[in-house]
Amino acid sequence: MLGKKLVTAQKRGETRALCLGLGMVACSMMMYFFIGITIVPFYTKSVWTTETVCKVLKVSIKDKVFCPNSKGSEDEEIFPYPCLQVWVNLTASGQEVMLYQTEDTLERNPKCSYVPDKLENSKEVKAQIETIASNFKKYQTFPCYYDPGGTQINVILSRLYPAKGLLFAFLWPTLMFTGGCLIIVLVKISQYVSVLSAWQ
């Protein structure tokens, strides 16, 4: 009787472990799919792939411009902000080009190097942009990214999804997938050993 209870408990444990392993594999596949349709297209679409050194030539703050947020362009969603323009010398080609914060900055407003998040206090936005401008004047040389193909003559300060970020995004589903497969393999080995010992 005790032996039957132990066998039943063992089978229940194996079933739960197998379900856990299958669940981990399924979740990891869903994460792979989500990353594949969200992050990977932005990474592959970016043409600013080569890192070089940029040297600041001119930093200026123009009059206020209007820029809609990412949700739409309705009147209540448009806010004014000072337009920061940073011109740099591209070491790779020696050209004088305009610097943008990220790829998204160029899409939102190609006239400005930096597009702030929507803030209610205009003084905070102005102070933030002035701080960024002073930092560019203080640190004249810094790494930046340019388009080696020449389709985009401007440069960006940082990529939204760099190669390291993409690898880090794939790290967690890979670990989950490996753990799930390992659990399934261990359960199958345990079942095989149990059947083999029972047959002997």
Automatic annotation (TrEMBL):
GO terms for molecular function: calcium-activated potassium channel activity; potassium channel regulator activity. Coiled coil: none annotated. It is a multi-pass membrane protein. GO terms for biological process: detection of calcium ion. The chain crosses the membrane at residues 20-43, 166-187. One of its GO terms (cellular component) is voltage-gated potassium channel complex. It holds the Pfam family CaKB. It is found in: Membrane. Keywords: Glycoprotein, Ion channel, Ion transport, Membrane, Transmembrane, Transmembrane helix, Transport. Belongs to the KCNMB (TC 8.A.14.1) family. KCNMB1 subfamily. PANTHER family: CALCIUM-ACTIVATED POTASSIUM CHANNEL SUBUNIT BETA (PTHR10258), CALCIUM-ACTIVATED POTASSIUM CHANNEL SUBUNIT BETA-1 (PTHR10258:SF1). This is KCMB2 protein. It comes from Ploceus nigricollis.
